[in-house]
Every structure is written in structure tokens, then in C-alpha cells.
Design goal:
The complex is a heterodimer of chains A (about 180) and B (about 190). Chain A contains five helices and two strands, in the order ααααββα. Chain A has about 180 residues and is an all-alpha fold. A two-stranded antiparallel ribbon of chain A has the order 1-2. In chain A, a hairpin with a 3-residue loop joins β1 and β2. In chain A, α1 packs antiparallel against α2, α2 crosses α4 and α4 packs antiparallel against α5. Chain B is mainly beta and about 190 residues long. Chain B has two domains: about 25 residues; about 160 residues, Beta Barrel (Lipocalin). Helix content of chain B is about 15%, strand content about 45%. Chain B is built from two helices and eleven strands; from the N terminus they run αββββββαβββββ. Chain B is elongated, with a radius of gyration of 20 Å. The chains are: A mainly alpha (about 180), B mainly beta (about 190). Chains A and B meet through α2 of A and β3 and α2 of B.
């Protein structure tokens, strides 16, 4: 089923979706990988790239939320919505709301961890950002697992999101992905 | 006879030393620092991120007379194993690539000349030795006095690679900057009036 231009997401929404998809998955991969490394200049670089990406994700998520609130996304095509069981509709909305919540929570908790650990974030090595909390080793240890848990939670939702999109594309073959496809 | 004259000579030398120390502007032992109020700190940068550290144990010997800077001397020994940044960094900094505290437990400074810039500002030049590397440094020192207590403060920047602090992969100054700012505040008793 072909979708008309009006039923597609706006251009900026599509750009933000794909840029953030790459940034979030990249930040997650680097975050998990560096955690296993012994202390080295490479690890310090990776940690800082991870933080800079995280702050960028946070900033773009603010822009994305503002855009989302001011530009209503296209409604689900009637035929698709009618074909969805009630639980899928709940899952569809729930997944998106939780992902948005975590787009903010994961970077903010990571930032707070960095502050508590006594490492202020200097964006791209040049722009010092304020500390979210005062340096405090005990607080840092308390925050640390939450950054990881929330990030894994976000990745679980991303996996669900991707699985649902692939189901629509290859099982239902309803062309839903066209709404978010770059180009055209 | 010989023994007696040696003892005599010893006594004379001892008397001369006593006299000299009595006449000296200030004897080493007279000037002591208050460790609770003094601090020796530094700031290192990792990819632009400032990391504050301190040395918790050090000792200072001073014979400082603001009126006679040429006769003044300062010596300082810092226990590098007392470095305090955070738990992970402290463990790392003791390793051979950094301070190598097993081989070089102390950093030392020994003044060679003291020059007065103004009534309360002095330039202290001397030999700074860290990890077996010796460099001449000039440290500007600002002094203030209140109720017989002197506060001497100053800061200077050293290049960590001059002292082989951070060898191998860690010599990469794009990750850990070469410049390290060292700051100190010494609260001293027994310094003559400015």
C-alpha cells in the first residue's frame, strides 16, 4: 500500500529520527565497549566521545520533542490501525512514550554520574558544561548502575521498535516504513 | 693529647655553628608550617577536562627573611604516594608510567635564589626534582601576614613530560595535557615581619 506525501513524517522529524538512531546506538556500543577496557588513553578518548555524543543526543532530543509537540506526526493509516489488536496499540504508544522518556533520562543520569565522579563534561574538549551534582564518590557509585540499566532498557525498546517496523515491512507488507524513509 | 685537641676543636666548631645559627636571619627549625591549613594541589587536563588533585603529605623547611631574601632558603619534599585525585586515578598515578612511587617516592624542591619583587612578593628559583628529572623553576610567591602567621601562596605551570610523568602511551598530550598547574598555600609560623 502506497502512502501519500501528507502521511509522511516532516523532513526534520525524519532527519532527527535517523541521526539520533545512529547516535544512540553508537553511544550505547561505545559505552558498553569502553566499560571493559583497562585505563588507557584510548579508553579516555572513548569515554569522552561517549559523553559528547550523549550531550548531543540530549540537545537533539530537546529539539525533537519541541518539533514533535508543534508538528503532529501523521496518524496511522486507517487500514493499519484497524488491523492492530488493542494490545499492539497500547504497545505502540507505550514504546514511543518510554523511548522519549529515556532519550532524556539516559544522558542526564550519565551526566550526573560524570559530575558526581568529579569529571566535569567539557563538550568537544572546548565547552565546559555545568556539573549536575557536586562531586561525591558515594553518590557516583549509587548513580552508576542506573545509567547502564536505563541504557539497556532503551536498547530493549529500540529492539522492539525495530522488530515492529520490520514486521510491518516484511510480514504485513503495509508500507508503514515509507512514512519515516529518508529521501523523496 | 691529640684526642684532647680534637675534642677541643669539636667544641669550637660546635660553638661556631651555634653562634652562626643564632646570628642567622632565621634558623630552619624556627619556621614550621601548619599542615591542617596548608595545601599543595594541582590541576591536570584530560581532553580539556580539568582534574583537581592534591598531595596530602609533604614537608617544608624554611629559613625565610623577607628583609634578607638573598639569605633565605626553602626546601620541600612531597610524598608522591599521597596523591589524591580519585581512587582510580590515585592507583594509576603511582604506577611506573606516571610517578613510579616505588622507584621515586618523593618530589623535592630546593631553592637556589630568592628575589624580592615587592614587599610581599618574591620569586623563588630552585631545583625541582621529580622522578629523577631535575629542572630549574621560578615560583612566584605572594605573602601575607596576620597575627604572626604567614600565608605564602603561589602557582606555576610545569610540563609533565619534562619529568617523564606519563610515559609510553600516556605521553600523548592530546589526551592528558603536558601543562600541569601546581598551586600551593603554606601557612607558616615564625617568619619575620614583611
Amino acid at each position: 500500500m502506497a502512502t501519500s506525501t501528507a502521511s509522511r513524517y516532516s523532513g526534520l522529524a525524519i532527519v532527527l529520527h535517523w541521526v539520533l538512531a545512529v547516535a544512540i546506538i553508537g553511544a550505547f556500543a561505545v559505552g558498553v565497549y569502553q566499560d571493559e577496557l583497562p585505563l588507557s588513553p584510548t579508553r579516555i578518548k572513548l569515554i569522552n566521545w561517549h559523553k559528547w555524543t550523549g550531550v548531543t543526543i540530549l540537545a537533539l532530543s530537546v529539539l525533537r520533542l519541541i518539533w514533535r509537540v508543534t508538528h503532529r506526526p501523521p496518524a496511522l493509516p486507517k487500514s493499519i490501525e484497524q488491523a492492530m489488536p488493542a494490545w499492539q496499540r497500547v504497545a505502540y504508544h507505550g514504546t514511543h512514550h518510554l523511548m522519549y522518556l529515556l532519550f532524556f533520562a539516559v544522558p542526564l543520569v550519565g551526566w550526573a554520574y560524570s559530575s558526581a565522579h568529579g569529571y566535569p563534561i567539557v563538550l568537544f574538549g572546548v565547552l565546559p558544561l555545568p556539573d549536575l551534582v557536586a562531586p561525591n564518590p558515594a553518590l557516583a557509585e549509587a548513580i552508576k548502575p542506573w545509567h547502564g540499566l536505563l541504557a539497556f532498557g532503551l536498547m530493549g525498546l529500540v529492539a522492539l521498535h525495530v522488530a515492529a517496523a520490520l514486521k510491518h515491512q516484511f510480514i504485513d507488507r503495509d508500507g508503514l516504513l515509507d512514512r519515516m524513509r529518508p529521501g523523496r | 693529647m691529640l684526642k684532647n685537641s680534637l675534642i677541643n676543636l669539636n667544641r669550637r666548631v660546635a660553638a661556631a655553628v651555634l653562634l652562626a645559627s643564632a646570628l642567622a636571619p632565621a634558623a630552619w627549625a624556627d619556621q614550621t608550617i601548619d599542615p591542617a591549613q596548608s595545601e599543595v594541589t594541582f590541576v591536570a587536563k584530560q581532553l580539556g577536562v580539568p582534574l583537581d588533585g592534591a598531595f596530602k603529605r609533604y614537608s617544608v623547611q624554611m629559613a625565610f627573611d623577607p628583609k634578607k631574601p638573598a639569605d633565605s632558603r626553602v626546601a620541600l619534599q612531597i610524598d608522591l604516594g599521597s596523591v589524591a585525585v580519585n581512587v582510580d586515578a590515585d592507583r594509576e598515578l603511582r604506577q611506573p608510567a606516571w610517578f613510579n612511587t616505588a622507584g621515586f617516592p618523593k618530589a623535592t624542591f630546593q631553592s637556589t635564589t630568592v628575589k624580592a619583587v615587592s614587599r610581599d612578593h618574591f620569586n623563588v628559583t630552585g631545583k625541582l626534582s621529580i622522578k629523577g628529572q631535575v629542572r630549574d623553576v621560578t615560583i612566584p610567591v605572594q605573602m601575607a601576614q596576620l597575627n604572626g602567621v604567614t600565608v605564602a601562596q603561589g602557582a606555576f605551570t610545569l610540563k609533565r613530560l619534562d619529568f617523564k610523568v606519563g610515559e609510553g602511551d600516556w605521553a600523548d598530550t592530546s589526551v592528558v595535557a603536558n601543562d600541569v598547574q601546581v598551586r600551593f598555600k603554606l601557612v607558616i609560623k615564625g617568619v619575620p615581619a614583611l
